[in-house]
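Sharing a chain and its predicted structure for anyone who wants a worked example. Both blocks are below, sequence first, tokens second.
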Amino acid sequence: MRLNQAVSKRLLELLDEQNMTQYQLYMKSGVPKSAIGNIVNCSYDSVKLRIIHELCQGLGIGIDTFFASPLFQEDNLEP
């Protein structure tokens, strides 16, 4: 799996866990709706860490929690 796909899946997992919509995340994080949609749809080859940090703030989690997922284990990611 590519890194942008892992970020997309993790974001969708966290939204589901918190029963939060992309719109609600936009309202809480300030990250534009279009950017959230592009992340979810893997439209970006990479996502800036600053954006992930802002999303984490909107989700009420630390960035370490975002990346604490088997999705980000090296053997699950393509080089």
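Comments welcome. The mean pLDDT is 96.
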